[in-house]
Amino acid sequence: MPDIAPDVISHKLTISSAYKPVRQKRRSYDTERYEAMRTEVEKLQTIGFIREATYPVWLANSVMVRKSTGGWRMCQDYTDLNKACPKDSFPLPRIDQLVDATAGHELLSFMDAYSGYNQIFMHPPDSEHTAFITDKGLYCYNVMPFGLKNAGATYQRLVNKIFAGYIGNIMEVYVDDMLVKSKTAEDHLQNLSIMFGILKEYRMRLNPKKCAFGVSSGKFLGFMISQRGIEANPEKIKAIIDMERPKTTKDIQSLTGRVAALTRFISKATDKCVPFFKALKGGKRDITWTAECDNAFQALKNYMSKAPLLSKPLPGEILYLYLSVSGTAVSSVLIRKPEKAELPIFYVSKALQSAELRYPPLEQLSLALVVWARRLRPYFQAHGIKVLTNQPLRQVLQKPEISGRLIKWAIELGEFDIQFVPRPAEKSQAVADFISELTPATVQPTSEAITETILPDQPGAERLDTSTPVWGLHVDGSANQQGCGAGLVLTTPDGQKIEYALRFDFRTSNNEAEYEALLAGLRLAKSMNAKQIRIHSDSQLIVNQIPRGENSHADALARLASAINDKVGRKVPVEILAQPSTVTSEACAVRYEDTWMSPIYLYLTNGTLPEDKAQARKLRYLSARYTVINDVLYKRGYTTPYLICLTAEQGEYILREIHSGVCGDHSGSRSLAYKAFRQGYFWPTMHQDANSLVKRCDKCQRFGNVPHIPAEPLTPIVSPWPFAQWGLDLIGPMPQGKGQVKYAVVAVDYFTKWVEAEPLATITAAKIEDFVWTHICCRFGIPYAIITDNGRQFDSELFRQFCTRLKINLFFASPAHPQSNGQVEAINKIVKKLLKRQLDKAKGAWPEKLPEALWAIRTSYRTSTGKTPFSMAFGSEAVVPVEIGEPSYRTKSFAPKENEEAMSLSLDLLEEHRAQANLRNEAYKQRVSRYYDARVRPRSFRIGDWVMRKVSLATKDTTEGTLGPSWEGPYEVIGILRSGTYRLRGSNGKALGHPWNVEHLKYYYK
Fold first, then answer.
1. Which residue among 109, 356, 766, 812 has the highest number of C-beta atoms inside a 10 angstrom radius?
2. Which domains does the chain have, with CATH numbers?
3. Do the Cβ atoms of 535 and 543 come closer than 8 Å?
4. Tens digits of per-residue pLDDT, 130-143?
5. Pick from 518, 459, 461: which is nearest to 487 by CA?
């Protein structure tokens, strides 16, 4: 029986009342397993670990597991009981910290408790819940058995309690694995004496077969610990080295699992396993083992044969972090530098997920730093960290205007003492794999040697020192209508390129942008501790000019920065400069020109008249309304005494200040001109200039009213024959129904108005393809055309290929313009209205009611055709349920022979009926068109025009709420598909994927 007293600790089960007790059905075993089970039960019952149970509410099966020695071990399947027990949140120690705390000691003693869990009693009321079934009867545990959910937490709570004050000092404990450590051999016996005294006091027993006392090294928690440092478990290394070439998916999974167990010792472990991950893609049992996999396998074995020795950091020591980013993973190595050596402490590697693969390289490097700050948090908290990098990480995380995730990362890293320092040229073998931080594409070597440029007027200029590494700097500036910016590319001596862009919040010329680019490049190079720089620019005013083609990289970055929008995803860090780097003063030449006031002023002051008599007469008549006061021309007003006369340039300033100045209200042109007039200003073209200014005001155009008057005449859609042209659309999401369906796909034939629909749980291209094939093609034949909106389910490669195979013409409505597919939109409204009225409160039953709604639509009279869709499709009216409850004439007087003759006649006349319905439909559409076209206010554009596009739900910034703009852009018209439908291109030069209807566009005045 165990000797640890119950008042010290006992294991309690906190079973949740939300779970019902489970009695597992007895399993059958072979004779050998039964015999081993009986022997184990007798042994456990003899020593008092178990007792017989009566009427247990929880019952588990016994499971016999083969030992490595060939014997059997009896376990219990407590799966159901563990589900009902909440997790005990008592923390287990971090293995990495325990291993670090153990390394570097002269003598060690390793101990293991004898059947550690069985030395703790079960709480008596919970003992019956551990009941298990055997062929001899039911038994339950008096002691804590293996397999219970919170057994490890209970044992850790015990050792923390009895060894309190000594853990972390002279010993380390992880559940039932104990270790006594000593810095010197002289102290070890005293430390062991203290530990044995505690074991004796609490009567805890050890397993002598698993104990080792007074040794210099040993295995602890899967690591080899010694005074030298931390080594990988030789057995785990041998498992990889001796492993045969994988042949199945399971073999590769076994290999990657073995690598994961040693990832702390493997530099760039994820990169080394990339070929194995590729082989696992597809989930097939049989794999394709490529030459790349074989090379990676052999390289992994060679690496593991000389796995590095890891060091232990000293308290308060500065640690150094190397980062590496490849196309598929981020890696790092944490090192210490005692006496100019570089000793690794921890290797970490992580595969990039789908979204992370699309991050810009510098953001991936930032992600690597954040991931390792989380993974190695104890090291980051206890030590100062110096990140050795030749990339501008500090500028990316601190200085530029950065995106949301970078702000979050910068805040997260702010709690640690992190410094960014340039990476030294010399490196030890421990960090040999981290030579390249950002693994670049293959760089073609250049034969062009570094040359020196000595300006003619500086014969004594200092030449480059060939013994010092030379950095390269390409700069360029850009100023255009979209804005001003600069780009630069800093090339390190080892060929890595650092891209940087600047966006100016102030207007500059091209030459001024070039200067700003040069100054920013020098600041960046200085922060990277560059000593010698060769600068390239395509501006003769900055440095010795080079051809633009040799500066294309920086030129592209400059154009990007000048046109970038805050909402555009960035591939390079973009810094926003609010003020110029230099303060300049301007000297402007004053030039006087004749204005509209000059003739009037000269006549009133000097009596000067034009030579032309008609012009002189006109001037005398006009001047009667003006006067000169203190050499200033005024106009006599009717509502105000005097209006000061201004030039057109002065008037533009007045209008601009009133319209969009500090107190501007962005009023209309008439109101704007009236306000200027009321303030005492006048010039002849006030209203015309106000109208022009309001038209060109960017904010007025972006926040202007959205017109609801149609801009194009109605274009009816005509179907040539029945079931030739279908409209397709989706309804949902709706309340979840049986089978987890919450969407419906709806199709309507444009000729007969026949409707098909099907409930769907998911709306994928495969589901849409199956619906079209089953409900349209297999029932009514292959259609000529299908009209849909621009949903991903319809505008997908899979659905396009399906339509191409069947030679179905696929047409898409303009985005956000449901009128282009109005027939199916109208049917959607009818379907939803019918379902609402039929369901009342049982909204989840809509899939069962959908066929009834379709039946009602198919048998209802349509105004456009004058017939029901059923009769248009089949030549006669359907028998509806009311004719069964109250028989009609045709059901009462039904005669098979006469009915067959009448049906044949109806089918013969069906084409005529359809033709008449088609004529009626055309007349109906003409009436609708006349009514619609009466309200049209034509609006059209030409290729090359700039337009604004109405903000849609997809492009609306939800953070702005109701204060957001109504229009976005501008966009350039690059194509006209048909009247009222245009193809657009953004100001960044990228064409929009879909054409847009004129209803969503308006002219943009620059």
1. 109
2. 10-93+107-208 (3.10.10.10), 234-434 (3.10.20.370), 470-577 (3.30.420.10), 598-702 (1.10.340.70), 725-918 (3.30.420.10), 946-1003 (2.30.30.140)
3. yes
4. 999 998 889 999 99
5. 518
